[in-house]
Amino acid sequence: HLSEHPKDTTSKKGLIETESKINALIRYYKRVGKLPQDFVYEPERARIIVSQYLGMGTAIQQPTTSAQVGQQQEAASEAPSGVH
């Protein structure tokens, strides 16, 4: 999205805040021994994992119709309950 809309400062700020939270959690889980010390967050890998989880192949696309929104919600509700 940001590559197509570089002036979307709201989305850019949201991404920065989200990645900041991710990095804080990584530091915490490394400190308490739940993650290996050499763990590195890879945004591209995270994008692929999330898009596969949402059943969208390799690219995350925004729904354009209410039917597509319903399909996304249905796919998300069918996901394994242990994964959130």
TrEMBL record:
Q: Name one Pfam family in it.
A: Ribosomal_S15
Q: Which InterPro entries match?
A: Ribosomal_uS15, uS15_NS1_RNA-bd_sf
Which CDD domains does the record match to this protein?
Answer: Ribosomal_S15p_S13e
Which keywords fit this entry according to its UniProt record?
A: Ribonucleoprotein, Ribosomal protein
Keyword S-adenosyl-L-methionine part of the UniProt annotation: no
Give the UniProt record's GO annotations in the biological process aspect: translation
On the tree of life, the source organism's domain of life is Archaea
SUPFAM superfamilies cross-referenced by the UniProt entry: S15/NS1 RNA-binding domain
| Region listing for Disordered, in residue ranges | 63-84
- Give the compositionally biased regions (Polar residues): 63-75
- Give a GO molecular function annotation for the protein: structural constituent of ribosome
Q: Does the keyword Ribonucleoprotein apply?
A: yes
The record's annotation in Gene3D superfamilies points to: S15/NS1, RNA-binding
Q: Among the entry's GO cellular component annotations, what is one?
A: ribosome
**Family indicated by similarity:** Belongs to the universal ribosomal protein uS15 family.
Q: What is this protein called?
A: 30S ribosomal protein S15
Q: Which organism is it from?
A: Ignisphaera aggregans
